[in-house]
Design a protein that fits this description.
Helix content is 31%, strand content 24%. It contains 7 helices and 9 strands, in the order H-E-E-E-E-H-E-E-H-E-H-E-H-E-H-H. It has a 5-stranded mixed beta barrel with strand order 5-8-7-6-9, surrounded by 4 helices. The termini are far apart. The structure holds hypoxanthine. Hypoxanthine (HPA) binds next to strand 5, strand 8 and strand 9.
Protein backbone atom coordinates (compact mmCIF):
# COMPACT_ATOMS: atom_id res chain seq x y z
CA UNK A 1 0.00 0.00 0.00
CA UNK A 2 1.44 3.40 -0.93
CA UNK A 3 1.38 5.94 1.88
CA UNK A 4 -1.58 8.31 1.57
CA UNK A 5 -0.80 11.74 0.13
CA UNK A 6 -0.99 14.80 2.35
CA UNK A 7 -4.31 15.73 0.71
CA UNK A 8 -5.72 12.28 1.42
CA UNK A 9 -4.60 12.47 5.06
CA UNK A 10 -6.12 15.93 5.45
CA UNK A 11 -9.40 14.92 3.82
CA UNK A 12 -9.60 11.81 6.02
CA UNK A 13 -9.16 13.97 9.11
CA UNK A 14 -11.87 16.38 7.92
CA UNK A 15 -14.29 13.56 7.09
CA UNK A 16 -13.68 11.78 10.42
CA UNK A 17 -14.36 15.05 12.26
CA UNK A 18 -17.61 15.66 10.34
CA UNK A 19 -18.77 12.07 10.96
CA UNK A 20 -18.11 12.47 14.68
CA UNK A 21 -19.88 15.87 14.80
CA UNK A 22 -22.96 14.68 12.93
CA UNK A 23 -23.52 11.24 14.42
CA UNK A 24 -22.30 9.52 11.27
CA UNK A 25 -24.58 11.42 8.87
CA UNK A 26 -23.83 10.60 5.24
CA UNK A 27 -25.47 13.26 3.05
CA UNK A 28 -26.01 12.27 -0.57
CA UNK A 29 -26.68 15.78 -1.90
CA UNK A 30 -24.65 18.94 -1.43
CA UNK A 31 -26.18 22.35 -2.11
CA UNK A 32 -23.68 25.21 -2.43
CA UNK A 33 -25.36 28.52 -1.71
CA UNK A 34 -24.18 31.60 -3.54
CA UNK A 35 -24.13 35.27 -2.57
CA UNK A 36 -27.31 36.26 -0.79
CA UNK A 37 -28.89 32.81 -1.32
CA UNK A 38 -27.73 31.36 2.00
CA UNK A 39 -31.07 31.35 3.83
CA UNK A 40 -32.27 28.12 2.20
CA UNK A 41 -31.98 26.30 5.56
CA UNK A 42 -34.79 28.52 6.91
CA UNK A 43 -37.21 26.95 4.43
CA UNK A 44 -39.82 24.89 6.34
CA UNK A 45 -39.18 21.95 3.97
CA UNK A 46 -36.05 21.10 6.00
CA UNK A 47 -35.40 19.49 9.35
CA UNK A 48 -31.95 20.60 10.46
CA UNK A 49 -29.90 18.04 12.35
CA UNK A 50 -26.47 19.68 12.72
CA UNK A 51 -24.70 22.95 11.98
CA UNK A 52 -20.91 23.05 11.83
CA UNK A 53 -18.94 26.29 11.40
CA UNK A 54 -16.14 26.15 8.80
CA UNK A 55 -13.74 27.58 11.37
CA UNK A 56 -14.19 24.49 13.57
CA UNK A 57 -13.54 21.96 10.78
CA UNK A 58 -9.97 20.66 10.62
CA UNK A 59 -8.20 21.53 7.34
CA UNK A 60 -11.10 23.59 5.97
CA UNK A 61 -9.57 26.57 4.20
CA UNK A 62 -9.41 29.48 6.61
CA UNK A 63 -8.57 33.14 6.48
CA UNK A 64 -8.87 35.37 9.51
CA UNK A 65 -11.76 37.32 8.01
CA UNK A 66 -12.90 35.15 5.20
CA UNK A 67 -16.54 34.76 6.17
CA UNK A 68 -16.61 38.54 6.23
CA UNK A 69 -17.63 38.63 2.54
CA UNK A 70 -21.08 40.08 3.12
CA UNK A 71 -23.73 37.48 2.34
CA UNK A 72 -21.53 34.45 3.08
CA UNK A 73 -22.09 32.78 6.44
CA UNK A 74 -19.40 30.08 6.63
CA UNK A 75 -21.13 26.98 7.93
CA UNK A 76 -22.29 23.54 6.88
CA UNK A 77 -25.92 22.77 7.65
CA UNK A 78 -26.91 19.09 7.70
CA UNK A 79 -30.61 18.51 7.11
CA UNK A 80 -33.25 16.14 5.83
CA UNK A 81 -36.36 16.88 3.81
CA UNK A 82 -39.53 16.71 5.89
CA UNK A 83 -41.31 15.12 2.92
CA UNK A 84 -38.52 12.57 2.39
CA UNK A 85 -36.58 12.08 5.65
CA UNK A 86 -34.36 9.41 4.09
CA UNK A 87 -32.75 12.10 1.90
CA UNK A 88 -29.85 13.57 3.78
CA UNK A 89 -28.46 16.85 2.44
CA UNK A 90 -25.70 19.22 3.39
CA UNK A 91 -25.89 22.92 2.66
CA UNK A 92 -22.73 24.98 2.27
CA UNK A 93 -23.69 28.42 3.54
CA UNK A 94 -20.93 30.47 2.05
CA UNK A 95 -18.39 29.31 -0.50
CA UNK A 96 -14.71 29.80 -0.75
CA UNK A 97 -13.65 32.14 -3.54
CA UNK A 98 -10.35 32.40 -5.38
CA UNK A 99 -10.55 36.20 -5.17
CA UNK A 100 -10.27 35.98 -1.38
CA UNK A 101 -6.75 34.70 -1.81
CA UNK A 102 -7.40 30.97 -1.58
CA UNK A 103 -5.72 28.59 -4.01
CA UNK A 104 -7.85 26.74 -6.59
CA UNK A 105 -7.23 23.55 -4.56
CA UNK A 106 -8.53 25.25 -1.40
CA UNK A 107 -11.63 26.47 -3.26
CA UNK A 108 -12.64 22.86 -4.02
CA UNK A 109 -11.46 21.24 -0.76
CA UNK A 110 -14.93 21.27 0.84
CA UNK A 111 -16.43 19.50 -2.20
CA UNK A 112 -13.76 16.84 -2.07
CA UNK A 113 -14.30 16.28 1.65
CA UNK A 114 -18.08 16.10 1.27
CA UNK A 115 -17.77 13.67 -1.64
CA UNK A 116 -15.77 11.39 0.66
CA UNK A 117 -18.51 11.81 3.29
CA UNK A 118 -21.04 10.37 0.81
CA UNK A 119 -22.20 13.14 -1.52
CA UNK A 120 -23.14 11.95 -5.02
CA UNK A 121 -24.96 15.00 -6.39
CA UNK A 122 -24.06 18.68 -6.06
CA UNK A 123 -26.37 21.59 -6.75
CA UNK A 124 -24.38 24.80 -7.16
CA UNK A 125 -25.87 28.26 -7.03
CA UNK A 126 -24.48 31.70 -7.60
CA UNK A 127 -25.35 35.30 -8.23
CA UNK A 128 -24.40 36.35 -11.74
CA UNK A 129 -24.54 39.24 -14.15
CA UNK A 130 -26.97 38.71 -17.02
CA UNK A 131 -25.58 38.92 -20.56
CA UNK A 132 -28.09 36.99 -22.69
CA UNK A 133 -30.80 39.22 -24.22
CA UNK A 134 -34.10 38.98 -22.37
CA UNK A 135 -32.64 38.47 -18.89
CA UNK A 136 -33.85 40.75 -16.08
CA UNK A 137 -32.48 41.00 -12.53
CA UNK A 138 -34.24 38.40 -10.41
CA UNK A 139 -34.42 35.80 -13.20
CA UNK A 140 -33.13 32.28 -12.60
CA UNK A 141 -30.91 30.64 -15.19
CA UNK A 142 -30.09 26.95 -15.45
CA UNK A 143 -26.41 26.57 -16.33
CA UNK A 144 -26.10 24.11 -19.21
CA UNK A 145 -22.43 24.69 -19.96
CA UNK A 146 -19.54 26.77 -18.73
CA UNK A 147 -16.60 28.85 -19.89
CA UNK A 148 -13.77 28.61 -17.40
CA UNK A 149 -12.01 31.91 -18.06
CA UNK A 150 -10.12 32.00 -14.77
CA UNK A 151 -6.99 30.49 -16.30
CA UNK A 152 -7.04 28.11 -13.33
CA UNK A 153 -7.77 24.46 -12.77
CA UNK A 154 -7.90 22.90 -9.29
CA UNK A 155 -6.61 19.57 -10.67
CA UNK A 156 -3.28 20.97 -11.80
CA UNK A 157 -0.49 19.21 -9.92
CA UNK A 158 -0.17 15.63 -8.77
CA UNK A 159 -3.47 13.90 -9.53
CA UNK A 160 -5.35 12.82 -6.40
CA UNK A 161 -6.06 9.42 -7.97
CA UNK A 162 -8.19 8.35 -4.98
CA UNK A 163 -10.70 11.01 -6.09
CA UNK A 164 -10.66 10.64 -9.87
CA UNK A 165 -8.62 10.17 -13.03
CA UNK A 166 -5.79 12.40 -14.31
CA UNK A 167 -7.73 13.31 -17.47
CA UNK A 168 -11.48 13.62 -17.27
CA UNK A 169 -14.29 14.38 -19.66
CA UNK A 170 -16.10 17.73 -19.63
CA UNK A 171 -18.35 17.20 -22.67
CA UNK A 172 -21.51 17.35 -20.57
CA UNK A 173 -20.67 18.52 -17.06
CA UNK A 174 -24.26 19.44 -16.15
CA UNK A 175 -26.74 16.60 -15.70
CA UNK A 176 -29.48 16.73 -18.39
CA UNK A 177 -32.00 14.87 -16.18
CA UNK A 178 -31.62 17.50 -13.46
CA UNK A 179 -32.22 20.15 -16.12
CA UNK A 180 -35.44 18.41 -17.22
CA UNK A 181 -36.64 18.28 -13.64
CA UNK A 182 -35.73 21.93 -13.03
CA UNK A 183 -37.59 23.06 -16.17
CA UNK A 184 -40.66 21.06 -15.11
CA UNK A 185 -40.62 22.55 -11.60
CA UNK A 186 -40.37 26.10 -12.96
CA UNK A 187 -43.22 25.42 -15.37
CA UNK A 188 -45.42 24.07 -12.57
CA UNK A 189 -44.64 27.14 -10.50
CA UNK A 190 -45.38 29.47 -13.40
CA UNK A 191 -42.00 31.11 -13.89
CA UNK A 192 -39.48 30.99 -16.70
CA UNK A 193 -36.25 29.15 -16.05
CA UNK A 194 -33.74 30.63 -18.46
CA UNK A 195 -30.88 28.51 -19.66
CA UNK A 196 -27.37 29.15 -20.88
CA UNK A 197 -23.62 29.27 -20.52
CA UNK A 198 -21.98 30.59 -17.35
CA UNK A 199 -18.64 32.37 -17.79
CA UNK A 200 -16.48 32.21 -14.68
CA UNK A 201 -13.82 34.87 -14.12
CA UNK A 202 -11.66 35.37 -11.05
CA UNK A 203 -12.99 38.78 -9.98
CA UNK A 204 -13.04 40.61 -7.64
CA UNK A 205 -13.49 43.44 -10.13
CA UNK A 206 -16.65 43.40 -12.15
CA UNK A 207 -16.09 43.37 -15.90
CA UNK A 208 -15.50 46.26 -18.27
CA UNK A 209 -17.93 46.92 -21.11
CA UNK A 210 -15.33 45.56 -23.57
CA UNK A 211 -15.02 42.37 -21.52
CA UNK A 212 -18.79 41.93 -21.62
CA UNK A 213 -18.77 42.40 -25.41
CA UNK A 214 -16.07 39.72 -25.55
CA UNK A 215 -18.19 37.38 -23.40
CA UNK A 216 -21.20 38.00 -25.66
CA UNK A 217 -19.07 36.99 -28.64
CA UNK A 218 -17.98 33.86 -26.81
CA UNK A 219 -21.59 32.85 -26.23
CA UNK A 220 -21.84 33.51 -22.50
CA UNK A 221 -25.31 34.02 -21.03
CA UNK A 222 -24.20 35.02 -17.54
CA UNK A 223 -20.98 35.97 -15.78
CA UNK A 224 -19.73 35.46 -12.25
CA UNK A 225 -16.76 34.86 -9.96
CA UNK A 226 -17.35 31.31 -8.77
CA UNK A 227 -18.68 27.86 -9.68
CA UNK A 228 -16.43 26.86 -12.61
CA UNK A 229 -13.62 25.45 -10.43
CA UNK A 230 -16.14 23.56 -8.31
CA UNK A 231 -17.70 22.04 -11.42
CA UNK A 232 -14.25 20.82 -12.50
CA UNK A 233 -13.58 19.19 -9.12
CA UNK A 234 -17.06 17.68 -9.02
CA UNK A 235 -16.73 16.14 -12.48
CA UNK A 236 -13.24 14.89 -11.66
CA UNK A 237 -14.89 12.87 -8.87
CA UNK A 238 -17.79 11.76 -11.08
CA UNK A 239 -20.43 13.72 -9.15
CA UNK A 240 -23.72 14.59 -10.79
CA UNK A 241 -23.88 18.38 -11.13
CA UNK A 242 -26.72 20.88 -11.42
CA UNK A 243 -26.16 24.63 -11.30
CA UNK A 244 -28.36 27.70 -11.12
CA UNK A 245 -27.52 31.37 -11.51
CA UNK A 246 -29.63 34.02 -9.92
CA UNK A 247 -29.32 37.02 -12.22
CA UNK A 248 -28.60 39.77 -9.73
CA UNK A 249 -27.86 42.52 -12.25
CA UNK A 250 -27.34 43.03 -15.94
CA UNK A 251 -23.67 42.82 -16.86
CA UNK A 252 -21.52 45.95 -17.23
CA UNK A 253 -22.72 48.27 -19.98
CA UNK A 254 -26.08 46.49 -20.31
CA UNK A 255 -27.74 48.50 -17.55
CA UNK A 256 -27.65 52.21 -16.76
CA UNK A 257 -26.27 51.82 -13.23
CA UNK A 258 -22.73 50.89 -12.24
CA UNK A 259 -22.31 47.51 -10.50
CA UNK A 260 -22.06 46.95 -6.76
CA UNK A 261 -22.17 44.05 -4.30
CA UNK A 262 -25.04 45.90 -2.58
CA UNK A 263 -27.13 45.53 -5.75
CA UNK A 264 -26.25 41.82 -5.96
CA UNK A 265 -27.36 41.33 -2.35
CA UNK A 266 -30.52 43.36 -2.84
CA UNK A 267 -31.68 41.28 -5.82
CA UNK A 268 -30.85 37.87 -4.34
CA UNK A 269 -32.49 38.95 -1.07
CA UNK A 270 -35.73 39.93 -2.80
CA UNK A 271 -38.56 37.83 -1.34
CA UNK A 272 -39.94 36.71 -4.70
CA UNK A 273 -36.49 35.76 -6.04
CA UNK A 274 -35.68 33.88 -2.86
CA UNK A 275 -39.00 32.03 -2.99
CA UNK A 276 -38.47 30.88 -6.59
CA UNK A 277 -34.92 29.83 -5.91
CA UNK A 278 -35.89 27.86 -2.82
CA UNK A 279 -38.85 26.24 -4.58
CA UNK A 280 -36.54 25.11 -7.36
CA UNK A 281 -33.93 23.65 -5.01
CA UNK A 282 -36.48 21.95 -2.74
CA UNK A 283 -38.25 20.59 -5.84
CA UNK A 284 -34.99 19.17 -7.21
CA UNK A 285 -34.18 17.61 -3.84
CA UNK A 286 -37.63 16.03 -3.77
CA UNK A 287 -36.93 14.51 -7.22
CA UNK A 288 -33.56 13.24 -5.97
CA UNK A 289 -35.26 11.58 -3.00
CA UNK A 290 -37.20 9.23 -5.27
N1 LIG B 1 -20.09 40.09 -12.88
C1 LIG B 1 -19.35 39.19 -12.19
N2 LIG B 1 -19.80 38.60 -11.10
C2 LIG B 1 -21.04 38.90 -10.68
C3 LIG B 1 -21.86 39.81 -11.36
C4 LIG B 1 -21.34 40.45 -12.53
O1 LIG B 1 -22.00 41.27 -13.18
N3 LIG B 1 -23.03 39.87 -10.66
C5 LIG B 1 -22.91 39.02 -9.63
N4 LIG B 1 -21.71 38.42 -9.62
Amino acid sequence: MPTPSLLEQQLTETVDFLKAKTNGTTPSVLVVLGSGLGTLHENPAFTISHTVAYKDIPNFPQKPNHTAVVGHAGELVFATLKSAPHLSVVLMRGRIHYYEGFTPQEVVYPLQALKLLGVETVLLSNAAGGIQAGLTPGDLLWINDQLNLTGLNPLIGENPAFLGPRFFDMTEPFCPQLREQAVAIAQQQGFTLFEGVYAGLTGPSYETKAEIRMLQTLGASAVGMSTVLEVLAARHMGLRVGAISCISNLAAGLQAETLSHAEVMETTGNAKVMERFQTLIVGLLTCLAV
